[in-house]
Design brief:
The structure holds two protein chains of two kinds. In chain A, helix 7 packs across helix 12, helix 10 runs antiparallel to helix 12 and helix 12 packs across helix 13. Chain A is an alpha/beta fold. Chain A has 23 helices and eleven strands. In chain A, 34% of the residues are buried. Chain B is mainly alpha-helical. Classes of the chains: A alpha/beta, B mainly alpha. At the A-B interface, helix 1 of A face helix 3 and helix 5 of B.
């Protein structure tokens, strides 16, 4: 049922009010006022409810013109239209009415039918306008959402490749926003409007877009990077920026693209000029890049990575403030400390606790710090060494059976498992010798490892049998993923044994079930693949 | 007495008012309502108190009603008085007061009779 529109009739003559009331009360809700003062009083409390005001001119206390003036002054005519009705039809009056902002003028005596029609038309027009306004606002909002969604998807794609789950982008976005807000509370020097803040936060999602061009083996290397490899990784900042600058002219002139390019290129610069790629110093670095750089560092420290475990908020702050991650703008560091209070709440920053807690047990060399001294002398603590012995297979350097049994088999939140073994492994051992067999296993493990994300776990389950536990995989790319793993193994070439070819049979399962069940199904799938060899068989269960 | 006769009795224009209101029901309704209208009384009181501003407002309102309901005779008199008071021509206004009273009484009597019939 459509709500009836509300009309206010203002006239000191009861007769006149009655006339109008009679005309209108069927279709509309009508409220009466005897004079201008009463009208204003009613409107000041209920103006949003009214669509139309029928105003007489000649009234005691406050006449029609005064009412009209008041309304226009307070901009109430955004809510409702005003129609003047009067028997005073002198040209001056009419002119004054329109000058004061009335929508229409009806002179008395009036033809009820005509007046009714004009009222209906006025209301129609006003409603249409309001509706259109709302539609425009809605559409703008939707467009904004879509934009953000696209950028989010894009950055997830980039992150997917290097094993981050997408949380990094979200976190950097949030941290950037908070830092910028706090910065504007401290200083005007960067002239940042709310729009600017939104723009920079959105653009921050693209800061690592250059990583899409970095080879997978380097990107996901669990161990320490060689200097050459580090040089390659460093190129992601310039590559990202040039990708954006390669866009067509109109697009690259867009504020979003310009800011994103700045961020991409310079989010590894440092305040003292010791960053890369251009060695910009101090305020030469655009503020957008400065902020994202700090947010990036903070999130990296407080997140699990393939080369390090997560530090606590306080540890991370301490490391940043004591300069272990490079120098930053002192003003920004102050903001970070102030804003970090908010980060204490775990729900603020999304973390993938599940498997990650287990993976804390294995520590890898810290790749992150530019401080070379720290890198070379990284000693594993006794505890870490002990755990490494326990859970890592000494030959292939991946997780071992014990790790699986202790950490996964009892879990009930695993959804995606794959199992594979080397085809004709016995044949290889018999014909090439066990040494070669070992080399094959090492190579296969290495290859598969470089094909999975750091959030996935590769486990040597037995002899030549391996299990992969995937963290959060999309059903429609699962099979493709396993296929590409199979193919890369097939493409392995051994320099010393040119005629040696290795293939694997793969079984995969994805669905909601107990790990034991999934394991069994994966095993069955592997058995299926084995019939043909060098094959992938996948089962998706509901 | 029917509505048309009533209108003729007090110098009103029946055809005109019907032309605007279309329905006799409506005209009758408001004509009867006029019995309760206080504009004339307010005018009378204001004039005797020499409150000409208030009087102007009252007679202006009366004029409007008369025009709306096609009380032609009443309208014409009210019109003159309204104009006079607007132009601060108090003498002319005062002069017309008896005429207004007559015109008003005529209507009241006729409408009352109509109501009672």
């Amino acid at each position: 049922m459509v709500k009836r529109q509300k009309i206010l009739i203002v006239d000191d003559s009861e007769m006149n009010r009655a006339l109008l009331l009679d005309m209108l009360e069927d279709k509309y809700e009508v409220v009466e006022a005897e004079n201008g003062k009463e009208a204003i009083s009613i409107l000041s409390e209920h103006k949003e409810e009214f669509s139309l005001l029928l105003l007489d001119i000649m009234m005691p206390c406050m006449n029609g013109f005064e009412v009209l003036e008041y309304i226009t002054e307070h901009q109430w005519d955004d809510n409702f239209a005003v129609i003047m009705i009067s028997s005073d039809d002198s040209p001056e009056s009419i002119k004054k009415t329109y000058e004061l902002g009335a929508f229409d003028y009806i002179s008395r005596p009036f033809d009820p039918a005509v007046v009714e029609r004009r009222i209906v038309n006025t209301l129609l027009l006003y409603t249409r306008q309001k509706e259109l306004e709302e539609i425009v606002v809605d559409q703008l909002k939707e467009q904004e959402n879509n934009n953000e969604l696209m950028i989010s998807i894009l950055s997830h794609i980039v992150e997917f490749r290097n094993g981050e789950s997408g949380a990094h982008v979200l976190n950097v976005n949030k941290i950037t926003k908070h830092l910028l807000k706090r910065l504007t509370e401290h200083t005007d020097q960067y002239a940042l409007t709310q729009n600017d803040i939104t723009l920079i936060s959105t653009a921050s999602a693209l800061h690592d877009i250059g990583k899409i061009s970095i080879p997978s083996e380097i990107l996901n290397k669990p161990g320490k990077l060689t200097p050459e490899e580090f040089e390659i990784i460093k190129t992601h900042s310039t590559i990202g920026a040039s990708m954006l600058m390669d866009l067509p002219l109109e697009q690259r002139e867009e504020p979003l693209v310009k800011v994103a390019a700045q961020i991409c290129r310079w989010h590894h610069e440092r305040y003292d000029g010791n960053g890369y790629p251009d060695g910009l110093k101090g305020e030469e670095i655009p503020i957008a890049a400065q902020v994202v750089s700090l947010a990036d560092v903070y999130d990296a420290l407080t997140s699990e990575r393939c080369y390090k475990k997560a530090f606590s908020r306080d540890e991370a702050l301490d490391m940043i403030l004591t300069g272990k991650c490079g120098t930053f703008n002192p003003m920004l560091l102050l903001c970070l400390q102030e804003v970090a209070e908010k980060f204490k709440d775990e729900s603020f920053i999304t973390k993938d606790r599940e498997l990650k807690e287990i993976r804390d047990k294995i520590d890898y060399d810290t790749l992150f710090f530019k401080d070379e001294k720290k890198d070379n002398n990284q000693e594993l603590s006794l505890k870490q060494r002990y755990e490494q012995l326990l859970y890592v297979d000494s030959l292939t350097n991946v997780y071992n059976r014990r790790y699986y049994d202790e950490c996964f088999s009892a879990a009930n939140d695993i959804q995606t498992i794959a199992m594979f073994d080397v085809d004709d492994f016995k044949y290889i051992n018999d014909n090439y010798g066990h040494d070669v067999g070992d080399i094959v296993l090492k190579r296969v493990a290495q290859t598969v490892l470089s094909n999975i994300r750091k959030t996935d776990a590769l486990i040597r389950y037995g002899g030549d049998e391996f299990v992969i536990v995937f963290y959060s995989m999309l059903p429609n790319i699962f099979e493709g993923k396993l296929e590409s793993i199979r193919k890369t193994v097939e493409d392995i070439r051994f320099e010393e044994y040119s005629d040696l070819q290795v293939t694997i049979s793969v079984g995969g399962v994805m669905g909601n079930a107990e790990t034991k069940q999934l394991f069994k199904i994966a095993d069955n799938m592997l058995y299926e693949s084995k019939k043909q060899k060098n094959k992938v068989t996948v089962s998706l269960i509901d | 007495m029917d509505l048309k006769e009533c209108y003729n009795a007090f110098g009103g224009n029946y055809d005109e008012v019907i032309g605007r209101f279309r329905r006799e029901q409506m005209v009758e309704k408001f004509m009867l309502k006029f019995l309760d209208d206080q504009s004339y009384q307010l005018f009378e009181a204001s004039m005797s108190q020499k409150n000409y501003e208030e009087a102007l407002r009252a007679v202006h309102t009366l004029k409007g009603i008369a025009q709306n309901l096609s009380f032609t005779k009443l309208f014409e008199t009210s019109f003159i008085i309204t104009k006079a008071l607007k132009e601060n021509d108090v003498d002319v206004a005062v002069q017309m007061v008896p005429q207004l009273a007559d015109d008003y009484k005529l209507i009241i009597d006729a409408v009352s009779e109509y109501r009672n019939s």
